[in-house]
Design goal:
single chain, 3 domains, 523 residues, 35 strands, alpha+beta
């Protein structure tokens, strides 16, 4: 037993390849639970702990404080719920199932299904999705269920429509593959246009910044070594008690971006902490309230729970670049982000949170009250979480094509001072629809289409400078074709000039080029 205990502690007391030092203060989970039972456990929130550690140091803080409560409330897209409907008469093996027109995954047993938070309604699009279904279940609302099946000897039924509430379900279990990022990047946008992302609406030319997470209250930032957080940890989840059952997907502790898998009884949860959401132009999600009690078993844990917003740094990332590795502009602290303004490229811009600090504080406070009222006890972990897991990208057997792979490099151009008549002759001779307009240095200044020429006839206008479009949607040479196709769709255009970093024209890409690529893929 002692050998096992040593190995277990050894697992926990390594982080980033460094042996963690012997401590002066040592408490067990059982000892702290005994103090909860007696009513003399000292419980503080993570924000309160910052001041205690700052004023008294980690050793004295560890002697004085038993538990630090944390909290976060934000969009957790990797969320969903397992539901069991019970058997119909005659029985049906659900091949496909919809809840309020939102399809749930049913590729398991006959009447089990998993409703994912980001699945969209087939009739209401971004307005309603799986996250809203989950909130409606928590609120006790009626949910329309439709199922179809192929029929078997033991499950002969092929169709079913009914109405259920959470009380009609045998199980309704919130089961989230990825929750409570330790921290997340802040986002901004370098493009000349507004973009819509899971980080919210990002205005053009670095005009705003968004961020997520609760900073000093962040559950995983208060125990980054995972000394007390692991499989079996009891937590606050959606207004009820839940558990951590594994490391979360995309768990990346070496980059201070750890995550957890969480589970809890949806029937016991409170809709104040489980909210379906629509993120404009992106899709649906589920806002989840989550808090973890951190037992102060030693001064090392006391020190990490004393982390302040000034000490937590995140990358300010340019979401205007549609690549896996986006440019990082600078580092910013949560203190800066929470101030409401940060400096980007020499100018101060407004900052907006995507999570609720008010509700994060509320969750930490509720968890504190539950413990003080002897309604919540700590759970001993049965296995630790990885401290060296590395998050890898998907294996791709072929590189995705970019603009320079498909663009026409020999581009016919014109100058702003050229006549409309000369441009009309070019269109007639070349049989294309887009004429880039460049200055004497070859820098793109506008574009003229065959439609512009047709409209200009009879207006008395003579020069291309009078009819050109100066605000041009462009692409860079390394921009993925998928992102360019999105531009075509969003802006209802059929071609884009491809430019270098200085705005010089490098080529042109049209919808016809994309059609040829699609044709090759299909062959």
């Amino acid at each position: 037993m002692e050998k096992y205990k040593y190995q277990y502690l050894q697992h926990f007391f390594k982080f980033g390849g460094i042996e963690l030092t012997k401590t002066k203060v040592n408490k067990s989970i059982a000892e702290i639970n005994d103090r909860i039972k007696r009513g003399d456990a000292v419980v503080v929130t993570a924000e309160e702990m910052v001041e205690i550690v700052r004023e008294r140091g980690e050793v004295e803080a560890a002697k004085e404080v038993d538990i630090v409560t944390t909290g976060t409330f934000g969009a957790m897209c990797s969320s969903g719920a397992w539901l069991n409907f019970g058997h119909a008469d005659p029985p049906i093996k659900m091949q496909r199932v919809w809840l309020n027109d939102v399809e749930a995954y049913s590729g398991v047993a006959a009447v089990d299904a998993y409703i994912g938070a980001t699945q969209l309604s087939e009739t209401r699009d971004f307005e309603y999705g799986g996250g809203h279904v989950i909130e409606d279940l928590v609120r006790g609302k009626e949910i329309k269920v439709k199922a179809i099946a192929y029929g078997t000897d033991c499950y002969p039924r092929k169709e079913l429509e009914t109405i259920v509430t959470k009380d009609d379900l045998n199980q309704a279990v919130l089961c989230n593959p990825r929750s409570a990022y330790q921290r997340y990047v802040a986002a901004t946008n370098s493009r000349d246009e507004t973009i819509y992302t899971y980080m919210g609406t990002l205005l053009p030319n670095y005009s705003n910044v968004t961020y997520s997470g609760s900073g000093a209250l962040s559950p995983l930032h208060n125990d980054p070594n995972y000394e007390t957080i692991g499989v079996g940890t009891r937590i606050f989840l959606g207004g009820a008690q839940g558990y951590i059952f594994w490391e979360g997907t995309q768990h990346a502790p070496t980059k201070a971006m750890g995550t957890i898998m969480t589970i809890g009884n949806l029937k016991e949860m409170d809709a104040r902490y489980i909210r379906g959401a629509t993120i404009e132009g992106y899709g649906t999600s589920l806002y989840v309230g989550l808090g973890i009690p951190i037992p102060i078993i030693n001064e090392r844990v006391a020190k990490t729970t004393g982390i302040s917003d000034e000490e937590i740094r995140v990358d300010l990332t340019d979401y205007g670049v549609p690549r896996r590795e986006r440019p990082i502009l600078k580092e910013v602290t949560y203190a800066e982000l929470k101030s409401g303004r940060v400096e980007v490229e020499g100018k101060e811009v407004p900052v907006s949170p995507l999570s609720s600090l008010k509700q994060a504080r509320e969750i930490a406070g509720i968890l504190k009250n539950w413990i003080e009222d002897k309604k919540f006890f700590l759970a001993q972990t049965v296995e630790g979480l990885s401290t060296d897991q590395v998050f890898k990208p998907i294996k791709q057997i072929a590189a995705a094509p970019v603009a320079k792979d498909l663009m026409t490099r020999e581009v016919v151009t014109a100058r702003p001072s050229d006549s409309i008549t000369s441009a009309a002759k070019i269109f007639a001779k070349r049989n294309f629809d887009h004429l880039p307009i460049v200055d004497e240095k070859g820098k793109l200044v506008g574009i003229v289409t065959s439609w512009n020429i047709a409209v200009a006839v009879g207006t008395g206008k003579r020069k291309l400078s009078e009819i050109l479009t100066s605000k041009v949607i462009v692409a860079s040479e390394d921009e993925p074709i998928d992102a360019i196709a999105r531009k075509f769709e969003t802006h209802r255009i059929s071609g884009v000039p491809v430019v270098g970093t200085g705005g010089e024209l490098r080529g042109i890409l049209t919808s016809e080029d994309l059609s040829k690529l699609i044709g090759r893929r299909r062959r």
